[in-house]
Write a structure and sequence with these properties.
The chain contains 2 helices and 16 strands. By secondary structure, it is mostly beta strands.
Length: 230
């Protein structure tokens, strides 16, 4: 009889402890939320974490070009058949969240122009690198590029023309706002508006930049696996 009473006391205490433990876990908690993975992974969604310090790189998506047009709706301006972006990961927190990167390179090649009076494109370059990059796993997977300590995001086109060599410099007053795509492992930017900040009076007053880069790969890993946003 005494043993039965002791067992009942122990059993009641165990039940109370279990109830307190369950109460400490939020009702919305799930195995995934209790052990959330990072925002950026390689190989698959929820795969291996991209480490801080890893180098990322992406060319233009196959079959596309980078364009720098005079208006948001025109097709007049500079078109580049090749372009590549390079970045270094600074922070890759647990999802949901925002990863941060430093854009260390953005290059353009095989550029042509269809502007009256322009005979060839010598170069299209960006200045004031590095730029800040944020990649969020919020709906739409928004990506933002912003100017760094050297100044605003800047683009300079050097053009050969009927009137000699023209240098046209443009700056972005705010930030690039694009989006990521896990299916193509890409980053897309559309009609990012630049305003002329220097150069010849013959240069257009505005420039609208569009490009899609992908696949984004972690070149610090063997085989350069594609990057996912979780």
């Amino acid at each position: 009889m005494r043993f039965s009473r002791q067992f009942a006391v122990i059993f009641a205490a165990a039940c109370a402890t279990a109830a307190l433990a369950l109460a400490a876990v939020p009702a919305s908690a799930s195995p995934e939320s209790l052990a959330a993975g990072p925002v950026l992974t390689t190989g698959s969604a929820g795969g291996a974490a991209v480490a801080a310090g890893d180098a990322l790189a992406a060319p233009l998506t196959a079959g596309t070009s980078a364009t720098f047009y005079s208006t948001a709706t025109s097709t007049t301006g500079v078109t580049c058949a090749t372009s590549k972006l390079s970045a270094t990961v600074l922070d890759n927190p647990a999802a949901p969240g925002t990863a941060t990167e430093s854009l260390t390179g953005l290059t353009f090649g095989s550029c042509t122009a269809n502007v009256t009076g322009v005979t060839s494109v010598r170069s299209l370059t960006v200045g004031h690198l590095p730029y800040g990059v944020t990649v969020s796993d919020a709906p739409g997977l928004p990506v933002t590029l912003s100017g760094g300590s050297a100044g605003a995001i800047q683009a300079t086109a050097v053009l050969d023309s009927w009137f000699g060599t023209l240098t046209c410099t443009y700056e972005l007053s705010g930030a690039f706002t694009g989006s990521a795509d896990n299916a193509a492992h890409s980053l897309a930017f559309r009609n990012e508006h630049f305003a002329k900040s220097g150069g010849s009076t013959l240069c257009p007053a505005d420039g609208y930049f569009s490009a899609t880069y992908g696949p984004v790969a972690d070149t610090s890993r063997p085989g350069s696996p594609a990057v996912f946003v979780n």
